Amino acid sequence: MKVKFRVIFLESAIEYLESLDKKTMTKVIYNIDKASYLNDPRLFKKIDHKIWEFRTKYASKQYRFLAFWAKIKGKSSLVVVTHGFVKKDNRIPKKELIKASDLRSKYIEEWEN
User: Fold this and answer.
1) pTM of the predicted model, to two decimals?
2) How many angstroms separate the CA atoms of 66 and 101, rounded?
């Protein structure tokens, strides 16, 4: 199978991943990797016009990692993971969307200009 996009993690995403127990972290990383090969909205879906989410259900919890598309040489082939959290409600908390948008803006300022 061909990789559809590469994934990188911002420091806040790495810190959250490292805070998870080993089995949960392994499952999350497996699903993120799997999503980079497949078009499966159960693993990776659009939240709004700029923010996407990686989804993992494990041990009765909904783990979410918000992300955005970044450009490499003019192509949108890189997905940048901003941070993670456990989803406790049907909706994504507004503060999590704001955090992802802020991290996206900071990334674009530093790396794409």
Assistant:
1) 0.92
2) 9
